[in-house]
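Structure in, sequence out. Go:
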């Protein structure tokens, strides 16, 4: 049992799932950029990726809970997990919007994928800021944490470009 409040634990779980989802979506979108898919195909691929990631994270949380606590989830614990599950979707709303615009002919698929990449890097920085803003860390340590998260996102972009460049 931790000394954190239930609200803090829920926030932490939601942030964790947003990070997982953002990095996974970023990797998939970058891989798609190399292949210039049809907009509808890109939408379906992203939807499958998002759903699969969310289900995997939820299942991992349930299995790890059972392993640690040696019991099934109680109702309030399941509700907290589902709240984090559905709350994580907010991290990938903009990529879906951009791909819908591409499917509607408003954006070219390449522009939609680029905009989605930028939106996800920005989302990771916001997620990082949300995580560190309430900590008692000095400002310079908070800045390092944010820079590290943004750098990891940029490393993913670099790796994908190197592989598919």
């Amino acid at each position: 049992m931790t000394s954190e409040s239930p609200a803090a634990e829920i926030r932490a779980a939601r942030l964790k799932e947003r990070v997982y989802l953002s990095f996974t979506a970023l990797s998939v979108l970058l891989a798609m950029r190399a292949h210039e898919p049809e907009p509808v195909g890109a939408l379906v691929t992203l939807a499958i990726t998002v759903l699969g990631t969310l289900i995997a994270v939820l299942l991992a949380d349930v299995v790890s809970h059972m392993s640690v606590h040696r019991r099934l989830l109680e109702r309030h614990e399941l509700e907290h997990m589902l709240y984090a599950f559905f709350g994580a979707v907010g991290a990938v709303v903009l990529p879906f919007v951009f791909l819908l615009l591409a499917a509607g002919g408003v954006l070219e698929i390449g522009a939609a994928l680029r905009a989605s990449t930028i939106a996800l890097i920005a989302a990771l920085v916001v997620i990082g800021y949300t995580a560190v803003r309430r900590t008692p860390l000095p400002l310079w340590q908070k800045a390092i944490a944010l820079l590290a998260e943004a750098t990891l996102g940029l490393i993913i972009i670099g790796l994908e470009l190197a592989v598919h460049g």
